Amino acid sequence: MKRMCLAIPRLPSFQCYRTQSAKRYVNTMAQHPLIAVCQMRSTADKVKNLQVVSELTAEAKRRSAAMAFFPEACDYLADNKKDTVAMAEPLTGQTVTSYKEIAIKNDIWLSMGGIHEASDKTEKINNTHIVISNTGQLMAAYRKLHLFDMDNKDTGVRLMESDYVLKGTEIVPPVPTPIGKLALSICYDMRFPELSLTLRNMGAEILTYPSAFTYQTGAAHWEVILRTRAIENQCYVVAAAQTGAHNKKRVSWGHAMVVDPWGTVVAQCAEKTGVAVTEIDLAILENVRKNMPCEEHRRTDLYPKMQC
Known about the structure:
Elements: E1 16-18, H1 22-28, E2 34-40, H2 46-62, E3 65-70, H3 81-86, H4 94-106, E4 109-117, E5 126-132, E6 138-143, E7 149-152, E8 157-160, E9 175-177, E10 180-183, H5 193-201, E11 206-208, H6 215-233, E12 236-239, E13 241-245, E14 251-253, E15 257-259, E16 265-269, E17 274-279, H7 282-291, H8 294-297
Parallel strand pairs: 2-3, 2-13, 3-4, 10-11, 11-12
Antiparallel strand pairs: 1-16, 2-17, 4-5, 5-6, 7-8, 9-10, 12-15, 13-14, 15-16
Helix pairs in contact: 2-4
């Protein structure tokens, strides 16, 4: 028997599950905002990808989520650099306009990213994580700081993001949302703890890592890193994910998840397209920080350049 989001019907093609008990879910869903972490398999077909985003958003809203989170490359995932660059759009383009319409239609906040943002200054593009309000307003745009470059001669895997993506230059302050103060990052950023520590110091309550994690690295490091970022920063972590084979060259790990400030995985998708719904309880966050006051003990006097 397939597992699904506990006690909540789902669309037939969507697989996901919760790790919290049904009793806790029922007792708290009216008290704390719900979020939906989404998982999908993007291809080079932008129309089909947009349809998946629309369906998953509708499912998230049906489950009473206040905000839905989508993975890196939710707009498209081409199999070559030329098409990846050529298909990119500005944030004023049709794809983002469609995302805004979806947010308004479903009265829900959206985290989309990173999407491929065209640049008029260079032949390269930006990998950009955007937040859209339930009224269709673009609330924030973060451009990926750490680019994933890997050229492994032993395995034959070559993924050089810097070949076609501009390196971001700014840490975006946490964004006030109905679920809490949301910090924006993208995928490979999760491997650099100084970024998340800085965001925590800027007031972050929820760290986000929308991702298209490769299968090999995902199997080894995905959950370990996400739980670590949650524990060391005492924040919720939301990691939407790409899953499955996108083309002949690329397969993603999947396992989109939400981790609470204690490091517990509270919601997770299986390996297919789907939505997992869970609550964001900032009282838990405050309790963890109060009872384990790490920030009071941080020796910033010995490493002030990190500004953590």
